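Please, structure for the following, as tokens.
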Amino acid sequence: MGILDAAPEEKHSPAFRYAVTGIALVVVVALGLWWALRFHSERVAVGKFLMALSAGQSERAYQLWKASPTYSYKNFLDDWGPNGYYGPVKSFRIKRTYEPPNSHNSVEITVEVSPYAPFPADDDIVKTGKTREVVIWVDRYDSSLSFPP
């Protein structure tokens, strides 16, 4: 036997290959599920808030906002009420969910709110012109909502 002669190759059993493939598949599926569901509770909190607004339940929406003492109910209505800056909210669409760098306790959720129900189609220029985009921050620990700093 010379230096360049290879030793006979040992064959692994099919069971070993199936086990490795199965483990790799489980890891990929687990990572995919984690990626898809990592901001689920924050999206649910924003969804509940906006559903309360679209149902006309401003008091309930204010409770879900969990406002600081400096953000009064009147201030809330100036922003979210029927005659407020973002109101009236009749339908919404969550556009993007993002975790800002160096922010371990907040998630930024961009939402489009519309005064029309159902949410207008993209080709309806008149109705989409009244759609507003708002960024809401959600605290991961207590699900309180706020505007970005």
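The chain is about 40% helix and 20% strand. The two ends are 74 Å apart (CA to CA).
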